[in-house]
Every structure is written in structure tokens, then in C-alpha cells.
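Feature request, filed as a ticket because there's no other form

It would be nice if the structure record came with a short human-readable summary line next to the C-alpha cells. Right now we just get the raw output. Example of a typical job, pasted below so the devs can see what we mean:
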Amino acid sequence: MGRRVQLAGASDLVPDRHGAAQTHRRDGGRGHRPGHDSEANAIEQAYKLGEALGLPVWNQDEAGPYQAIPQPGPSWQPTTEPARQPQEYIRGGTAKLLTLFRPATGAVRALGVTSATNAVLHPWLKTELTAILATCPPARAGAPGRTWSDWDWHPDAHRLDAHLPPVRMLLIWDNLAGHHSQTMVPWCADHGIVPLFTPLSGSWLNMAESLQRIIVGRALAGQHPQSAQELIAWLEATVRGWNAAPSGRAPAGTPSAAPPGSPADPSLDATDRLQLKGQPHDK
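Raw output as currently delivered:
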């Protein structure tokens, strides 16, 4: 078994005047959330160490639904001809965007759909993850970060190492019921993919959400899509444009490094930064 990746023992929370910082319960009180700190720490270490250990770190999320109606937002218009939206309109359906995002390179894999049920999401995800794994070098058993106990915070995680293949990829996604499917999770395990689920109230740890706000803002701001098919076409075209010049993470240790998709990312224009700061994420 290889050298274990050292995960932090506690979150980097600011202590209060009465002692160590405490997390808030859903009922508004204070207390411990089982697994909350461990999940967050595992994701933090994945961002910090995963790529350096030769493990591609991908984020997955489903954006939307977005309606085929006049969309708010800025647009370029002649000074005397402001953009006008119709007072009455017919709803043209909705669309969602299945997204895989690799923060280290800025690469995006996405598919526009009219629904994101497990029957739609899981086949697409398996196809994309299989294609990604095909580009990865063979896993070196025993190398740092390649054992499941390096990343799984459950106390019995070391038992997985004897039954599962070496880790090849880290997948960060939200803690939704569909992501805990009895078919999807075992499939990931059999292919050396460690699913890291965001903790309660911790979906902000999934950087695909920041990327999606940029994509959706570029595709739809100030526009009036007429149908779900037009929504999908615009979203997918914007993803292709993004991939033509993706924004990735600066090398580790760079003082000016900013997470891709964050308001401080120097590759983003002013409109993108406003999207990140002012637009809530649709869920």
C-alpha cells in the first residue's frame, strides 16, 4: 500500500471567542455534522493534490432548467436602439446542461438535454468518463494517492483497497440521491473513479457551478430563445467557444493563482465576473 495522502483533521474555520469554530445545524443551532468536515477536507485535498499526483480532477453538475422565454441581461445595441423584449410571449419549453469540468485545464464536456433523469445522466456520464480514462496513463498501484483509503473518509475505507482497482480519477459532484445510485457508484468504483460528494450546504465546493454560470450568461443574457432546441444549441455552441480557449487553474504555488471560474480569474471579462457575483445558481 502506498503512502497515504494526509488529509486535514479539521476545517480551516475562524474560531469564535468561546473556542473552536462550530458548524451550524439545519435547524439553526450549532453542532457537529457527521462526515461534513471530512467530506469538505477530502474535496479540498483533491483540488490541492489530485492533479499533482497524476489524478485528473473533474467536477460534474446539471445546470438548469432554463426556460425558452426572454432572458434578462446586457446586450450590445446602437445608442438610440435599445434592446426590447416582447410584452407577451409563449413559453417554448425548458433545457438543462449536463456538465463535466476539469479546473486544472478548463476543459468542459457538456450536453444539452430537456431532462436530466438518471436514465439520461448516467449513460452520458459513463460514456464521457470512459473517454477521459482512455486518455489517462495506466495507474501505478501503490503510488501516492492511488489507494481508496487515501481519499475515502469512512473509517473502513482501507478495506476497499483489497477489492478495488487503483484510483485513476477524482470526481466531485453534489450529494444528490441520483448520484448515489446502486448502478452508478459501483460502476465508478470498478473503473477506479473516486466519487467525492459535496457535504450539506457545500455545493459551492463543486466548481462546475461557477463554470455553468459563465456559460449560461454568455449564451442567454439578453436573448429570447424560442424553443428548448434553440436553448440547447446556444448552450452547446457556447461550450465549444469556451473550449477553443479554456481558462484553467494557474500552477500550484503561483501567488496570483485564482480558481478558474472565480471572480478573481484574470481570464474572465467584466461581464463574467458580474455573473459570478450577482447571479444565483439555478437548481
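Something like this underneath would help us a lot:
The first helix runs from residue 36 to 49.
The first strand starts at residue 57 and ends at 67.
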